[in-house]
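**Protein of interest**
===
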Amino acid sequence: MFTKYLASFLLLFVTTLTFSQDNLYTSLTIPDNLTQNANAVVRKHSVDITLKSSSQMQVVEKRIITVLNKQGNENIDAYVFYDNNKRIVNLQVLVFDAYGKQIKKFKKKDFKDESAVSGGTLYSDSRVKYLDYTPINYPYTIEFICETVNSNTAFIQSFYPVNDYYLSVENSIYNITFPDGMTIRTKEKNFNDFNLEKTAQNNTISFKVEGIEAFKPEDFSPAFSVMAPRVLVASNQFSLEGVETEVENWNDFGKWLYDDLIKDTHDLPAETIAEIQNLVKNETTDIEKAKKIYQYVQNKVRYISVQVGIGGWKPFNVSEVDQLGYGDCKALTNYTMALLNAVGVKSHYTVVYARGSQRSIEKDFAAMQGNHVILNIPQENKEDIWLECTSQKLPFGFIGDFTDDRDVLVVTPEGGKIKHTKKYEEEESIQTIKGVCSISNEGAIKVKVNVVSKGIQYDDKYWLETETSRDLDTHYKKRWKYINGLSIETMSINNDKENIAFIEDVSFKATNYSKIIGNRMLLPINVLNRNTNIPDRYRSRKLPLEIKRGFKDIDEVEIKLPTDYKIESKPKNVLIQNKYGSYKTELIVKDESTLIFKREFIVKDGNFPKEDYSAFRDFYKEVSKQDNAKIALIKK
């Protein structure tokens, strides 16, 4: 009996000792609140950056993460980028089971190694080492250890404790140490709901945060990158591919970009200059000249990613683009700028965060930012023109949701300036529908419709121009999916680039559109533009409401009633107005056999507190309900 109790005591002692010493390696010690809505939990993440000079940076990163389920595998992040300037000194991973027992060890040689860019890149000197590990059971824990040395100090890693949804953080620490004579700037964002500890002493700045519960995505909320807690870090003195500089503000930064990375690339051949000048000789305005040159670039070159040179920031010489006929966003933007300059049209190379989330350059924090380059043509007393130089399809002056409505860095010979790109208001992002529908006595429908889309609604559709007939057929059946048995008869598309309007003419038919019950027919009045999107319901909304882009729909549809029926009852006209937009319908009896249905639906962009979400959802819900209204017909 004594032996039995002694064994139990020893087992309890060993287990307690294990948990106290290695409690970060077992899933059993994770606080309950950090497992809620989480696929993985960062147990401890430390980043130690040592700037030995403006041209030498050492980074030691250690991350212990417990993966709770299959979806959490995406959060392991056991990878490291490297290139000719960034050397990997140490790289290893340890794997632990649910109880904290080590079951695997991976060294540097066990990591896979490949190019860090996609197949669309012509060539690049950037590579990545990553762990390819398939777990046997869940949960499990990964400890990732990486040390690198980098001669480029332009990009200093931010303190970014949580970088994804469904990921919680137990403990995250960030330290940066720097020598005398270097100035380190920091900017804290989105820590209002978290206890951020900051210390600064002896040329070291430290940040620490604990207990970040997992974010869960919610409809109509800000982009994760916009609302996640983050500390931006930059040095006034830095080096990029051996080019050293010192900047304090965006004016300095832009001046450096222009003088050291752009100015010496403008070596356009004399014969090309002559060709371009001849191309625009009959044009009398700068805008007409710019349109001609933009079309010339679209016809001549194509986009291919090229990520070499000064951190991927220095564009190719324009003579190379001219000769080869391809380039990345930097090269093609710079090339277009050089062509415009050859005919006296001023334009500026512009750095931007591209993608649909409308992320802005931090206007009060000069540092390496952005992931894309576009072109700015300034207009005196008018709205600036912005050009997407990588597209062979976009109309002149149209940038769409890829780079719209955000702060960007405009690089001029005099220095950098923060400007704001084109914002497409709801009155500009308009879709106009005009249609004629005929209903048969059997409830079938025949439709002819003309759809004109502008602004962001143009951006949603212009790609249809290059689709096959089969794909278009599928697209329209999906657009009008609420009509059963729809059969497309004719399709005609016109991409009017001059007016930036996308025009669709479609005819289709469907049997059993209306429901016949005895001597009555129920006819859904909104044939062509029903709102079927009702945002998800949340019992406890956590995130603020953001409507990223507004729009306006205007519909006018003539409905020819079946000859054997007359109107028994019809829905009343509707008017809804609130801070999120408006909705109104009008049903006009033109004569005993013809109705005119008019509909206007406006949604306004804006940012609202989370408490507004329920009312916003109710607005969409009511619109969806009214869009399904029916007319009751009765046999004559």
About this structure: The chain has three domains: 26-240, 247-420, 430-635. Residues 26-240 form a domain with the Immunoglobulin-like fold (CATH 2.60.40.3140). Confidence is low (pLDDT under 50) at residues 1-21, 119-124. Residues 540 and 610 are 9 Å apart (CA to CA).
